[in-house]
Amino acid sequence: MREELEKLVAAGKISRHHVEPLVQLTQMGYCMHRSWGFGRIKTVDTVFGRLSVDFPAKPGHSMDLAFAAESLKAISGDHILARKAADLEALRQMAALHHLELIKLVLQSYGGKATVEQIQQVLVPDVIADDWKKWWEAAKRELKKDGHFLLPAKKSDPIVYEAKEVSLQERLLGAFRAAKGLKARVAVGADLLKNLDDLDDKVGTATEVINLLNGDIASHQRTQPALALEGVFLRDDLRAASGGTAAAEEINARQIWAQAGAVGAVLEPMSASKHKRALQSFRDANPAGWVEAVLASLNAVSAKLCTEFAQLLIQEGHLTHLKDTLGRLINQHQSSSELLLWLAKERSDAFADVLGPEVFRAMLTAIERDQFNEKKSNRLRDFIVDDQELLLELIESADIEVIKDLTRALQLSPSFDDMDKRSLLARIVKHFPSIQTLISGEHARQDTALVVSWDSLERRKNEYTELVHKKIPANSKEIAVARSYGDLRENHEYKAAKEMQKLLMRRKAELENQLGRARGTDFANPRGDVVSIGTRVRVTDLETQHPEAYQILGAWDFDAEKGVISYLSPMAQALLNRKPGEEVEFEHDGHKKRYRLDAIEPCPAPASAPAPGP
Questions:
Q1: How far apart, in whole angstroms, are the C-alpha atoms of residue 157 and residue 304?
Q2: Cis? peptide before 606, omega within 30° of 0
Q3: Where does the pLDDT of residue 610 fall: very low under 50, low under 70, confident under 90, or very high at 90 and above?
């Protein structure tokens, strides 16, 4: 083939630098193109200067020899892609029986190293069609024990194959010795701890690592207490796993906490996985003052750390102290956006008596305060917008005037853009229609108003007040108590309390809608020429020829014994604006009724105080 290519060079059909790449392509039989991917060399025609390649999407693709030499990269038959094309079944057998042999083949195909993602892409689904994660976990355990494979600390870094075998103990200990600084040593030490049982001399290795850690802990305990604590935790875990004993001069967590500042400031830079343990060590180091210290730091830490603080306080029986602190911070509008974000995400029934309209007001304050800080955060604002239920859950138990006040505050808030503000306002209006006029600036249409007697209006207001200030708060406490009984799936008290909550909230919404539309009156001076609200009518039932009398009063007035009916009833609606002598027809309880209007007169003064309607 080389001689034939040389002839093409002499004839000027290809350049001399094309010869070697073309020889490799013909000898190896496989190639890669940056756009078309893997290909198998099918034929080489030196007469017409063409080369034919089977690409997955271009079978039998013909290419000019010069172009092929410049655009194709030859790969050997040992390459993983060539092996897949030549004998896929053999690779599947290798995957099932010889994990390391297959991974070695992949790494060698890509110059001795490849990331986990690259390995997965080349093997799945052709070679490994089943659960890749399960297969890789098994393979990774073997890789760690084999001395030829170097596994990186980061998943994004490549796995490296080395011909010279290095034991797992040598590799991990070498990496720990080479790590610069306590932070790097803690990261490498954590990997060493995971593999301690697979080392040849785990006691000797653990002893060396512990001694090095002790030196780093001593130098960091004042300047970086969080890092020093992580070092202490790793050291203690290594000693426990290797069966060693602590030296008398070692620095422990209690000594670090004795010199450290606020608990929140120490824990904040620490990795989240260590928060719980570090917080427990703080409790053990400060048995008398840890509750006050944690509560004092609650307003200065991230939402994630708030979760750990709250869980420990609740676990140790300090839920009341926690709620008292939350209530004070919220009512004084001092709560941070991170604390409120945690409370919004938590939103459990344990905090039912804390969650309420004042929380949303505090949120607006915190968000606006964040806008003026150097380190701006939009996390709370974004959560309020994204969580479709939060706003309504916070304000649903509030008095309608409080809801109006919060709506105005939201309208004036500079922290939400127009689209987000409209979305939040729409949620309020959907559940509290009476707020619409506040937002739009329009007055309610007259035909949506409810004409009511002063007595019935007073009763509805009293019912609303009792609902908001007594029944709903009592129900919230019932929910919190029932929740403490345990498993909510089988907790009948909890389910019953939640069902009652729905009924109470539904009635609250109904009352707010009704009270927002109500127009009180004493029915004085009604029209006398036609039937109107506040008149007494005398009628005759045309079916029985029986005379009857009715007082047409407010929307909520009804008293069958006194003949008081609401002007919204079917009979009153049929009679309104009618004159004596006219006949009316309406439906009552599924039957057609016909009456003749005989006389109209004002209702007796003063109007009676009828019982509220259903």
A1: 28
A2: yes
A3: very low
| Residue 147 falls in which region: left (phi positive, over 0), alpha (psi -120 to 50) or beta | alpha
CA distance 60 to 81: 18
The pLDDT tens digits for 439-455 are: 776 444 444 788 999 99
User: What is the reported pTM?
Assistant: 0.60
* List of residues 6+ apart from 586 with CB closer than 8 A: 570, 571, 573, 574, 592, 593
Q: The tokens of 44 are what?
A: 């080489």
* C-alpha dist (Å) from residue 391 to 161, 387, 431: 56, 8, 11
Distances (CA, A) of 533 to 541, 563, 593, 602: 21, 14, 21, 9
For residues 187 and 411, what is the distance between their CA atoms, to the nearest angstrom? Answer: 49
Share of the chain above pLDDT 90, in %: 62
Q: Is the dihedral of CA 168, 173, 179, 184 positive or negative?
A: positive
Backbone angles phi, psi at 536, to 5 degrees: -110, 130
CA 185 – CA 190 distance, rounded (Å): 8
pLDDT range class, residue 488, cuts 50, 70, 90: low
Q: Is the dihedral of CA 175, 181, 185, 188 positive or negative?
A: negative
pLDDT band at 489 (very low <50, low <70, confident <90, very high): low
List phi, psi (to 5°) of 46: -80, -15
**Which 3 state secondary structure label does DSSP give 47?**
coil
Q: What is the pLDDT of residues 348-407, one digit of tens each?
A: 878 888 888 999 999 999 998 888 776 667 899 999 999 999 998 898 878 788 888 899
User: Is the distance from CB of 588 to CB of 570 less than 8 angstroms?
Assistant: yes
